[in-house]
Amino acid sequence: MKTLYISLILALTTLLSSPVKAQDNTVHNYVVLTKKIPQLKPILLTAQALREEEGTRFGDFQVIVCGQHIGDLTDKEQMTPFLQEAEAQGVTIVACGFSLKKFKVDAGSLPREVKVVDNGILHNFQLQNKGYKSLSL
C-alpha cells in the first residue's frame, strides 16, 4: 500500500511538474534598407515567405529606399509590379526624404503608395529601437 501511494505521488508530481510549452505569440516586425529598386523583388519574396511561415506572428514589414537611385521610384512601369506585390504582402515602401532632396526628386512624383519619411536612416534606427529586425542591402 505504501508503495502504491509513493508511486501515485511520483506520477502526479511528474505530470504536474512537466514543462508546458508556452505558445509563442510574439509578433515579428521587419525593416529593410535598400539603395536599388531591383532589390525589391527578392525583398518582397522574402516578405511573402515570412508571412506564410509565421502566420499571425507576421507583423509590419517596411522597405526604406535611400540613395542615388531614389528617382527610380518615380518610374511607373518599373514600380507597378513591385507596388502590387507589396500591397499583396502588406509591405510598406518608404522613400527617404533626405535622398529625395539631395537628388532633386519631387516627392509629388512618387506613387501614392510610397510613404515618405524625413530621414530614412533615422527611420530605420527608430524602428530597430522598437524591436524591428533590420537588414541593410
Description of the molecule:
It is a single chain. The protein is 45% helix and 20% strand. With 137 residues, it is α/β, with parallel strands linked by helices. The protein has a domain at 34-117 and 131-137: DsrEFH-like (Hypothetical Protein Ychn, Chain: A), CATH 3.40.1260. The protein has a 5-stranded parallel sheet with strand order 4-3-2-1-5, with helices on both faces. Helix 2 runs parallel beside helix 3 (76-89). It is globular. The model is unreliable at 3-16 (pLDDT under 50).
Total strands: 5
The span between the termini is 70 Å
CATH topology of the domain at 34-117 and 131-137: Hypothetical Protein Ychn, Chain: A
Mean pLDDT: 87
SS-derived structural category: alpha/beta
* Low-pLDDT segments, ≥5 res: 3-16
Helix percent reads: 40-55%
Overall 3D form: globular
Gross CATH architecture of the domain at 34-117 and 131-137: 3-Layer(aba) Sandwich
SSE order, one letter for each helix or strand: HEHEHEHEHE
Largest sheet: 5 strands, parallel
- CATH-wise, what's the superfamily of the domain at 34-117 and 131-137? DsrEFH-like
What is Rg? 24 Å
Write down the CATH class of the domain at 34-117 and 131-137: Alpha Beta
**How many helices in DSSP terms?**
5
The strand line-up of the biggest sheet is 4-3-2-1-5
Q: Quote the beta fraction.
A: 15-25%
Keywords: Signal
Protein name: DsrE/DsrF/DsrH-like protein
InterPro entries: DsrEFH-like
Organism: Zeaxanthinibacter enoshimensis
